From TrEMBL:
Subcellular location: Cell membrane
Molecular-function GO term, any one: ATP hydrolysis activity
Alphabetical list of PROSITE patterns matching this protein: ABC_TRANSPORTER_2
InterPro entries with a match to the protein in the record: AAA+_ATPase, ABC_transporter-like_ATP-bd, ABC_transporter_ATP-binding, P-loop_NTPase
Protein name, per record: ATP-binding cassette domain-containing protein
Organism encoding this protein: Amycolatopsis suaedae
Pfam families: ABC_tran (PF00005)
Membrane-topology descriptor: Peripheral membrane protein
GO BP terms in the entry: response to antibiotic
Signal peptide start and end residues: none
Lineage: Bacteria, Bacillati, Actinomycetota, Actinomycetes, Pseudonocardiales
Length: 308
């Protein structure tokens, strides 16, 4: 296992940031760590990245215990996120060379590694410019490249696409997907559920320092999420009366202008919707069924368990 956490607990004075967290991740997995502000995501990553010590429990990265072997842990991990490691006054190339030198490479090796990453991350045109002149997307790419200089096998990514435009996000997601395909284990902490939906092979949802749900996105969606049917009508008035009808037959329905969204919980399926309309002779203009997203899963957990 690349990441092996058992019964992890962390207290900051009276605050119990992590109560009892157990999780694992192997090579090539992208572990999405989700949870509200204060759920314990940063604390978990800080312990795994040896920035803070746990109060109890064990955490191993590539078999190295974070408390007993922090130096070995640091040698196999990369940390990236808010572009804090980038020196804006230096060109992108020099930032990469600097990191390589800090990791012990000689000038020639450092230059070679910088060129490899410049090429892999499409930074060739801007590598000679001070990083302060980069757009948000370029800066994120440089930050990610810098975290990969030492060829980490475990990479911690903190909200990697914050502030990126849709093209930048898609590009960054592709780069992360490629890393995982090459065997890197990625731990992704994010508030963006679509990001986790796109990237994560496994998800843990933290709530008040505990794991409140875990599994692959597909498992979570089928266990917790609810499919929805969206029915469109000719006009607002029909939509409102259809919504009332759905409620009377026990369906949860929300009208919005000419559209009604019906949640297809365990017992209900799309035929219940169609039959209900049929009994009163209402013709829908259109009907679509959508599979649940991670956002639906998260909101359901929030309702059921008060995930915070
Ligand atoms: N250095 C610290 N001293 C005291 N309390 C802390 C410290 N760091 C974190 N906490 C508390 O521990 C809890 C977990 O915080 P943590 O930052 O791990 O959550 P998070 O899920 O990363 O939140 P966010 O999404 O806001 O980053 C919170 O109640 C927080 O206030």
């Amino acid at each position: 296992m690349r990441i092996d956490v058992v019964g992890l607990r962390k207290c900051y004075g009276q605050v119990e940031a992590l109560a009892d967290v157990t999780l694992r991740a192997g090579p090539g997995r992208v572990l999405g760590v989700l949870g509200h502000n204060g759920a314990g995501k940063t604390t978990l990553v800080d312990i795994l990245a040896t920035r803070t010590l746990p109060t109890a429990g064990t955490a191993r990265v590539c078999g190295f215990d974070v408390v007993r072997n922090p130096r070995q842990v640091r040698r196999v991990i990369g940390v990236t996120g808010q572009a804090t490691a980038v020196d804006g006054a230096l060109p992108g190339r020099d930032n990469l060379v600097l990191v390589a030198r800090l990791l012990g490479a000689n000038p020639r090796q450092a230059g070679d590694r910088a060129e490899e990453l410049i090429e892999a991350f499409g930074l060739g045109d801007v590598a000679g410019r001070p990083a302060a002149t980069y757009s948000g997307g370029l800066l994120r790419r440089l930050d990610l490249a810098m975290s990969l200089v030492g060829r980490p096998v475990v990479l911690f990514l903190d909200e990697p696409s914050t502030g990126l435009d849709p093209v930048g996000r898609t590009e960054l997601w592709r780069l992360v997907g490629d890393l995982a395909a090459d065997g890197t284990t990625v731990v992704l902490t994010t508030q963006y559920l679509d990001e986790a939906d796109e990237l994560a092979t496994d998800v843990v949802v933290l709530g008040a320092g505990r794991v409140v749900a875990s599994g692959t996105p597909a498992q979570l969606k089928s266990a917790i999420g609810t499919r929805t049917a969206t029915v469109r009508f000719a006009d607002d008035r029909t939509a409102v009366s259809a919504a009332g009808l759905f409620s009377r037959v026990g369906l949860t329905a929300a009208p919005l202008e000419r559209q009604v969204t019906v949640s297809l919980a365990a017992a209900a399926d799309v035929t219940t919707v169609v039959r209900a309309l049929d009994t009163v002779g209402i013709e829908p203009a259109d009907l679509t069924v959508a599979e649940p997203t991670l956002t639906d899963v998260y909101l359901a957990l929030h309702r059921e368990q008060g995930v915070r």
